[in-house]
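Hey L., structure's done. Input below.
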Amino acid sequence: MRKVADITVTVSLAALMTAGLGLAAPRAQAQAGLERLAGSPQDPKGKDSKDQRLLVEADELIYDNDRNTVTARGNAQLSYGTRTLQADRVRYDRGTSRVFAEGNVRLTDETGALVTGDRMELTDDFKNGFVDALRIQQTVELKGETVRTRISAPRAERIAGEVSSFDYATYTACEPCKDNPAKPPLWQIKAAKIIHDNQTHTISYEDSTLEIGGIPVAYLPYFESADPTVKRKTGFLTPRFITSTALGSGLSTPFFINLDPSYDLTLSPAFVSRQGVLGQAEYRQRLDNGSYNVRLSGIFQSTPSAFLPGPLGAADREFRGAVESRGRFFINERWRTGWDLVGVTDKWFLDNYRIRNQSITTDFFREAVSTGYLIGQGDRSWFEARGYYFKALSSFDWQKEQPIVAPVIDYDKRIDGPGKIGGEVRFQANVTSLTREATDFQGIPRTGSYVFAPSVNGISYPLYETCTTFVRERCIVRGLGGTTTRLSAQASWRRSFIDDAGQVFTPFAYLRTDLFSVNPSLSGFQNQNVASITTVDDGLSGRVMPAIGIDYRYPFVADFGGLGVHTLEPIAQLVARPSETRIGRLPNEDAQSLVFDDTSLFEWDKFSGYDRVEGGVRANLGGQYSVVTPSGWYANVMFGESIQVAGVNSFRRGDLANVGLDSGLEHRRSDFVGRAQVSPNQNISFISRFRLGQGDLGVNRFETGVTARFAPFLPLETSLFYSYYQAQPALGFAHRREGVTASATYRITPNWFLTGSALVDLTHYLDARDTYTDLYTGYLATGGAAPIYKNPGAFYLSGMSLGGGYQDECTTVSLNYIVSPIATAIGVRERNQTFLLRLELKTLGEADLRQNVGTVTTADGIAAVR
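Output:
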């Protein structure tokens, strides 16, 4: 039977050895203690401790008084503090204070690192020594993942327990092949010498080679990296390669400076052949209650002429730059504050120099959003105060039409109803104030009219869409120039009652009040044309909307055993309130997104924001049927309509932006809306939504799709959706919109994968035809280069991503081909084509290589390339 002895280290080894009764202890007495010979041991923190013990376990203990040695044989295990030595055989030499371990030797140190070898020669505290056929395995957390690193060498030396030197060693983070351990890992570094310093937490490589699949791909005479336990260390980061027509070719070499555990600085100079040196610096600091960063970018351009002249580009600027900052702070467990700020010298800088962050979008809609906020959250309450500044980042967006929104304050509080009234009482409030210089006009249908159209190198660039004729029927206002401030408050109550028959009655009531202060700008930047479209209230005005209503539901539930639980639920809702006032006389900034479908049918107020409020007496009628089976089958069908019973229909009279028209709600009886969903199991789901015309049941809106995950039978995840929207000429959509989106990920093996997505525009050819007509009309009027019509076909691939890659515990490599839609300075939609290669060798670093391809002729802000 295996036994354990633990002995205080201060007992002398001589006393232990003189107590031996022979050269070998019998197996029945298979226990013993070994200890340090000289002085008191040290604990793992380096402090002397007389309580430190050396615990020994073995099948057999042999004492040799002649050679002054003690040997533990048979599954020997020696534990000293937090360090453990295991081997088939361990011999302790009293004279040299050395420990010799042979056969399946395993040494675990205080960090949890595992050192294995065929033979080890160590000091008696396991800190120093030599190892033959050494292998080290260390587990670390890296970006939330557990990564195991490995170092192996035929011979290694451990010095002072802090420095390990490996001769002719290899380093990798890859698992060895289970079927063929001798097979080279996916990647490894081979070096004449690898030195790991536990004090500085660095690993240095001398005369090293990077091998991929056993094939040398890169040679470095010397380099140094932080060991995997280091989260932050001064040094160079992975370089970034740059290449473009306007910038030339170049390299960014980030250098990270660890100033303190709580703050750091990253310098990222980028050397580009055509423009010079782009300087970038980012400072980050973490405080007790949050963190913030500041990033500066700037360049004195060598070749400004590579860009278009203003107002199309920055050819007239020698210096260009940006400042960005982000902060997140937690005041206490309920309150937090922060900001996202972006400031630029010109709208093209960030995109031209490919600078990205979380506040910047540079795809079809190009803008940088700056915001500051204060948020508080209670058990049943919410407070949020924000301010916004939107910076347009493309030539065709007019900055004077972008609003400054400050403040936007929202408050939402729910409490239990008083006394016998019961139910739930809810209070909501909103304050919004915004200012813009120029009114944002849009022609209906879109006429291709612009504020002005500069010409560069024979190419006309019409900028800033506007109306040809400023009349109510041909022009709408997307955003009003001037300053608008609105204060809104709403108090509501509701309570549900269920009778003995199972009928559910939910009476409700609410009172909504709005106070507007409107100071429209009616001069400059075409602002005076607002008066030709409508009369806008100037000064203070108010609006009050009281409402009472009731929601009725009567679910019929039947359990058919194996056929599942079936539920049929008719629903009726009646809302009574006075007519909406001041329609078309007040700005509408936050209620322009009106979608009437199954999700909004039973909303008390179907407008999406506060600037509009639904009025009149309205009945919402419908019902739904659902079934759930024991096997997991689920189906749901919903159908209904909305009827204006009395008063003014808020959706029949369009406001400044014509919101409500062409919505399906503008007539007394609305369009029919519905939904159908079928899920045979938790992995597959089919869903359809539709809006059908009241009179002819014509399809005005239709969305259908499927999401599926076929594992474990097939390693495939996919989705496919088709969308159709009928023309809405009153809103500026003269043609129907129709398209298909699809995405899929297929895992060829647990490591290899393919992925793809596509956006197919089935009606793009209609827009292309109108754009050509507009350009041709402009050509006849102003001359210049005659436009050429290019028919994109019925199936226009607006966006696409195709790629694949490999991912395992140590490596990620992927290659993607991306086609993304962009809008250009001449108002034509084109496609940006990009190859993106990403390689990550875990614990070493990662690199991205992005290359734009294709023949884009109107790159925004950049001189035309043919």
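DSSP finds four helices and 53 strands in the chain. The radius of gyration is 37 Å.

-- N.
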